[in-house]
Each structure stands twice: as C-alpha cells, then as structure tokens.
Amino acid sequence: MRIALSTDHSLYDLILGCKQDMPVAQRLLYERFFGFGLSVCLRYAKNNDEAMEILNDGFVKVFRSISGFAEPGGDDELSRLFMSWLKK
Question: Most Cβ neighbours (<10 Å): which of 5, 29, 52, 65?
Fold first, then answer.
C-alpha cells in the first residue's frame, strides 16, 4: 500500500514514503536534513565541494538502507533518532 504524503509532511510520513521508494518523499527528506547533514560533512571535508559529495553519497546510503530504520513512537524522539542515524 502506498501512502499519500500529507500537506505538513511529517517526518514519519517522509520516512515511510522513502521506504516505499517515493521520489517526492526522498526529495523532501533531503531538503529537510540538508543543512544538518552539510554541517556534519563540513567538519570532515577539505572544502564545500567535497562536503557536498560526502553529503550526497550519504543520502544515497540512507535511501538504500532506510528499510532497516525502525521508527519510535513520538515525533521529537523520531527526529533525534533519525539525525543520529543519518550521522552514521
């Protein structure tokens, strides 16, 4: 069963959409965590271009392995858990 993303695009809905290989959910998740991910990558990269490459490679890995991500109950906890998982 495919989900329809709600207008508020909750993180739970975006993750579920990514698990169903929905490109719109992948784009929205990328946009939501772009700044956070880039800030982490800039700590390890020599320049912005390298940080962007690391970030994009990381999101490819996220989308390939998101089926193994287990969602907790609450949205606040889900956000913290996903950001921690994203850093890996």
Answer: 29
| 59 part of a folded domain | yes
**Is 37 a domain residue?**
yes
CA distances from 46 to 33, 35, 39, 42, 50 (A): 21, 17, 13, 8, 6
Residue 51 lies in a domain: yes
pTM (two decimals): 0.79
Query: How many alpha carbons lie under 13 Å from residue 52 in its C-beta half-sphere?
Result: 3
Question: pLDDT (tens digit, 0 to 9) for every residue of the chain, 88 residues total?
Answer: 454 554 568 888 999 999 999 999 999 999 999 999 999 999 999 999 999 999 999 999 999 999 888 776 666 678 788 888 777 7
